[in-house]
Amino acid sequence: MKKGQTKKKDDIYISPLTPIESTSTNMKKVESSHESGRGAAGNPVSVKVHPIPRTGSLPQRPTASRQSNRAGIFDFKRRKMRTDQPWIHKNIPYKVCHTFVRNPKVTNSEECCCGGQESDHVPGFTRDPSTTNWVQSQHTRKHKGWCFGKIRFVEEDGTHQPDFVRISDDMMERHASTTRVLDLLEQKWRLPRPNLLISVTGGAADFACPTELEKRFKRGLAKAAKSTSAWIFTGGTNTGVMKLVGEAVRGTSFGSQIITIGVATWGIIRNREQLVGKVRDGKLVKDYETKKDMVNEDRRGAFLDPNHTHFLLVDDGTQYQYGKEILLRAKLEQKISETYGETDSTLPQICILVEGGPNSIKTLLETVRLGT
């Protein structure tokens, strides 16, 4: 040994998450060496414990006790939940109106051409009194907010809490953003692979339907979806044919297993303010009321249906304007059909029209135009 050179300690790294069975021999050696204060080469030993970096898969944990295993798994689930929250916050934006342009058609109140009042705009919005021409591409911008999680319908028993996210209307326009939407469905919401796609559209207003015909529709839809592991797409609100579909999947003993995705326009959802707010202390659940309006007595719009399993709330920056979700829904259904189809064919898709008006015709037109 050269003069002035000090002995280097042997560094032994031990992972606290390494299975005991596979390292029992090594641990005994470490213990014996530690007791004697010497390593294999006769040098002093320092034991360093380093954590395993967080990954997307569940790390192996000690099996010495069932209780420690259970606690470790719960800790992983909490960590996974915290990891998913920033992903949605970062990758699934929505649109907001950032320039207030007064609507000349409304004389008794201060209303923007986007349909919202001043209080509906994001903090820091500007006013443009020089124009009355509101243009979406100029007066809206994408915003990454905390509008996602689970919905607890206050009037229900609370056992069914569907996932939801507020999403920009142009998320299906580019390959990168389309991939993020599919990642949301597959990886974050963990939806099972569908064998059939059932798209139900029609009237948003309540309508009279013969009792026997209504029973047959509900029973047939639920049976078809269950037997084929289908995904059902609707407009998501608690009105018209969407409400009928919700009652169909709820009226079966296996209702919670039928994937029913509501794609609705964010700006027409009543009490949507209850779904906004930063996630705190890992709390993802938002309380939502469907019996009365909590902010004002404005009767425009509709409540969400409590029997759906997932919601995509499409936002283009406007309020109280129906049909803003049509194009995104059509392109999403097309992409799902292409993604989950066989090698030489697309996933089978059925489109059902019940009642309806101009927007229902537009929905069918987009479906035919995209070839789904």
Task: Describe the fold and architecture.
The chain is an alpha/beta fold. Helix content is 31%, strand content 18%. The protein has eight helices and 14 strands. The strands form four sheets. An eight-stranded mixed β-sheet has the order 12-7-8-13-11-10-9-14, sandwiched between helices. A two-stranded parallel ribbon has the order 1-2. Helix 7 (326-339) runs parallel beside helix 8. The model is unreliable at 6-41 and 45-83 (pLDDT under 50).
Which descriptors would you attach to this protein?
372 residues, alpha/beta, two-stranded parallel sheet, 14 strands, 18% strand
Compact overview of the structure:
With 372 residues, this protein is of the alpha/beta class.
